[in-house]
Amino acid sequence: MAPSSEPILQVSGLVKHYPLTRGVLFRKQIGAVRAVDGVDFTLGRGETLGVVGESGCGKSTVAKLLCNLERPTAGAIRFKGEDITRLSGRALKAVRRNIQMVFQDPYTSLNPRMTVGDIVGEPYDIHPEAAPKGDRRRRVQELLDVVGLNPEYVNRYPHQFSGGQRQRIGIARGLALRPEVIVADEPVSALDVSVQAQVINLLDRLQSEFDLSYVFIAHDLSIVRHISDRVGVMYLGRIMETGRDAEIYDHPTHPYTQALLSAVPVPDPEARDRRERIILAGDVPSPTNIPSGCRFRTRCWKARERCVVEVPALAVPEAFRGGTGSAVHDSACHFAEELRVVPAQGAAEGPAQGVAEENGSGPG
Amino acid sequence: MLLEVRDLHVEFRTRDGVAKAVNGVSYAVDEGETLAVLGESGSGKSVTAQAVMGILDTPPGRITGGQILFEGRDLLRLKEEERRRIRGADMAMIFQDALSALNPVVSVGDQLGEMFVVHRGMSKKDARARAVELMERVRIPGAAQRVRDYPHQFSGGMRQRIMIAMALALEPALVIADEPTTALDVTVQAQVMDLLAELQREYRMGLILITHDLGVVADVADRIAVMYAGRIVESAPVRDLYKAPAHPYTRGLLDSIPRLDQKGQELYAIKGLPPNLMNIPPGCAFHPRCPMAQDVCRTDEPALYAVSPARGSACHFWRECLHGPEQ
């Protein structure tokens, strides 16, 4: 699945501020929630970009902006070269067909009064050109089959399905218009552990079957790593570090990424004593009042004078410029340095399955 | 033994039938020990804990059998008034969602202080002072000022600290934490788990940690009990279980964690869905999803076989599971 040269999505300088106002008659703006505060990334065809971050970092707002559910305050989102943030009317509708969303909560994102057939077929009501009227039922049944549900279930209602099955319905709806990009916002976090893997495998299979590009938003770092080609780590409305999955996970250079990775509980009791954990102090600052300079500095153990005054750019840090290897990737930190925080693979070895010596730490 | 649950049965009577939520659960926790109860939604892990605490909704819930021995006394035989004295003072619970577990219209200081007023008969003034102490103990910055604040004025992590403070206020012998960090972000989760582990060591309390997260369990638990369809299917010291699970369900859960050397491959997934508690499959409840199932699994319910003195597995084929598939 090699990403082709021309990106399918190109996001530059994306900003979304929600104004805070006071007064009823004389409404005046007293500030803004800076939910997304300058985000750039590209998504190649057939590629999966994972976006990770904690609650309030703006990752879901990015998803809404990509699907045109919100209009950005500034910046551009180019779909195959065309800026979709300025579109309206028919042109906007045409683009929306190509970028579809899968939501987190399969309990609230399906209308309980509609049958599964109506839910999955609803996109055809909005885009009638996508399927001729007489053909819809067959198409819907095909879609159900594709996501692993019995096609005979078209007349059932959402409450008759389990969480994992509902998420499959949501995915079928997302696929109905044959989009090129799917934005999945925490698609498995509401599901039980044993069902999560089923849905991840389904998304994986659909990607190759339909030549999809994914923006995969999640807070579960091990799932993001499994599914993503590239990863962006967000904090308070900005991407702090981005690179290929192995670059981020094995060679993180931004202190926030390092803390985030080290805090993830590892399913291996043997690693308890060997792990180096970085416990961050305090909470994420409010997005209405973002710290000056580097926005992470209030929780960073490395913060110095320079971090207060100068905003670090998202680029290859000075220390690594001209170098080679996996530490050379974009990281928005003045004092970036490599720190391995995830235990070597040998540690995360699964349950005894015969001999596992040849499982080295991988090429990285 | 601090707490011993013996052959507990709980069912819920609903309009659609009887849901058998807990079907013969036994476990024990000693002082200073952390027992993790791992399971998916509907496995009965929270219902068991509610029965221990005596906060099960009855009706529709009903305890139909078993014993809950706390410091030797069977709690199920006590009067509600006696149980109320135990609850809070000798055993306490930490809930997943602090925002809905705390009273939104009472300041956190008053909620913490209430523990001392009700159980210890302190004056309001002394209770307030103890509340500030507790808030400092769980490292809430500016405790003396914030004691007057209301729950909504705190962040998620801080609220969970207040819940912990409340649970530990009277230094109970047993604390049950039901998914205490599930609603929190990763970095805050680490802070809160660290705090909980530290306080447990200090007070030498028994801790039952209810969770669905294999990672959290590996980090803090001494023993682990895996639940499925209202039963314990495997019970083991934590290191043994991760090294070599003795039940196919545990093995499936461990195998479905994404691993580095499997990137780009299909993840292992347990097929099918958790059972409906109104209609639990006969024999071993896991057999419709089990890759090792044989005829005997469809008819005979496996007992919790002793794999070793410290381990049990409710699988007819635990030996095959433990030693891996013969290939």
From TrEMBL, chain A:
Record key words, sorted: ATP-binding, Nucleotide-binding, Transport
InterPro entries: AAA+_ATPase, ABC_transp_ATP-bind, ABC_transporter-like_ATP-bd, ABC_transporter-like_CS, Oligopep_ABC_C, P-loop_NTPase
Gene3D superfamilies: P-loop containing nucleotide triphosphate hydrolases
Coiled coil feature spans: none
Domain ABC transporter: from-to ranges: 9-261
CDD domains: ABC_NikE_OppD_transporters
Pfam families given in the database record: ABC_tran (PF00005), oligo_HPY (PF08352)
Listed GO biological process terms: peptide transport; transmembrane transport
Gene Ontology MF terms: ATP binding; ATP hydrolysis activity
Family the UniProt entry places it in: Belongs to the ABC transporter superfamily.
PANTHER family (UniProt xref): D,D-DIPEPTIDE TRANSPORT ATP-BINDING PROTEIN DDPF-RELATED (PTHR43776:SF7), TRANSPORT ATP-BINDING PROTEIN (PTHR43776)
Full protein name: Peptide ABC transporter ATP-binding protein
Protein's organism: Streptomyces monashensis
Automatic annotation (TrEMBL), chain B:
UniProt cross-references to PROSITE patterns, sorted A to Z: ABC_TRANSPORTER_1 (PS00211), ABC_TRANSPORTER_2 (PS50893)
CDD domains: ABC_NikE_OppD_transporters
Any GO molecular function: ATP hydrolysis activity
ABC transporter domain location: 5-254
Signal peptide: none
Family per similarity comment: Belongs to the ABC transporter superfamily.
NCBIfam families in the cross-refs: oligo_HPY (TIGR01727)
The protein's name in its UniProt record: Methionine ABC transporter ATP-binding protein
Organism annotation: Streptomyces monashensis
